[in-house]
């Protein structure tokens, strides 16, 4: 879970707050090809998140983890999104040699749509998930897992990440997070201009996300109920629960 102040919120009270709204915290315009040194080593439970617009005539987009800044360094992860082949290809590059076991999966991305991909490091594997858009403006709530890849060489020494290929732009690159215990509680000052980003893998009948004060007065409870097929919202006033709000669909799928 990430709690960050959204620097892009419009603070001019004479203007609608949505004027400078950003879907993701930390959005900006990055140059393509993109290569960045990571400030801290990757750790178990972290997620690498990238968002950009795919060119209409796209052929390939490559995502690489580098051990060093040079041109011929080891690549523990090479993920190639290939529109010309209709495949997503995973491999590694060690001592100047590509791995013989090239893993090839169906490419679910489409040209002229948004690329939203997350690579999670968990259980000595890379778990790749994407959000699929039906057009350039719509993103479904759920991420689709496209593949899980074995870590063939240790992550120790990975200090750069690169993204290159047929992107119009890259507007988000972020990595972080960890695996939190469940149930999880954090002390955080939630004020206007901040938001919560939560990534989870839901199971069972329901899960709740609660915002409350030191007196356990719930300002908001969001209860995702798979057994009822709805998302229930409620709040407390004077130690009493208010009227439940149940309108709307259930955009979250159990197990995704």
UniProtKB/TrEMBL annotation:
Record bears the keyword Ribonucleoprotein: no
Domain Galectin: 34-176, 182-256
Any one Gene Ontology molecular-function term assigned to this protein's record: galactoside binding
Record flagged with keyword Cell wall biogenesis/degradation: no
Annotated Pfam families: Gal-bind_lectin
InterPro entries: ConA-like_dom_sf, Galectin-like, Galectin_CRD
Highest taxon of the lineage: Eukaryota
UniProt entry keywords in alphabetical sequence: Lectin
Protein name: Galectin
Species in which this protein is naturally found: Acanthocheilonema viteae (Filarial nematode worm)
């Amino acid at each position: 879970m990430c709690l960050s102040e959204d620097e892009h919120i419009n603070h001019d009270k004479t203007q609608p707050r949505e004027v400078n709204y950003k879907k993701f915290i930390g959005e900006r315009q990055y140059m393509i090809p993109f290569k960045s040194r990571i400030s801290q080593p990757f750790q178990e439970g972290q997620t690498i998140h990238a968002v950009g617009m795919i060119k209409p005539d796209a052929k390939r987009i490559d995502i690489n983890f580098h051990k060093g800044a040079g041109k011929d360094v080891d690549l523990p992860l090479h993920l190639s999104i290939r529109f010309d082949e209709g495949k997503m290809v995973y491999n590694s590059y060690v001592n100047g040699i590509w791995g013989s076991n090239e893993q090839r999966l169906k490419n679910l991305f489409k040209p002229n749509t948004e690329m939203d991909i997350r690579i999670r490091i968990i259980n000595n594997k890379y778990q790749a998930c994407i959000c699929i858009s039906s057009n350039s403006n719509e993103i479904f709530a759920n991420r689709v897992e496209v593949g899980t890849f074995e870590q063939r060489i240790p992550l120790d020494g990975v200090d750069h990440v690169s993204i290159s290929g047929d992107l119009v732009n890259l507007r988000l690159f972020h990595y972080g997070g960890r695996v939190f215990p469940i149930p999880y509680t954090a002390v955080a000052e939630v004020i206007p201009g901040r938001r919560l980003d939560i990534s989870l893998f839901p199971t069972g009948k329901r899960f709740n996300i609660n915002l409350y004060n030191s007196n356990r007065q719930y300002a908001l409870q969001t209860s995702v109920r798979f057994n009822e097929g709805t998302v229930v919202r409620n709040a407390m006033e004077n130690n009493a629960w208010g009227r439940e709000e149940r309108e709307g669909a259930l955009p979250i799928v159990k197990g995704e």
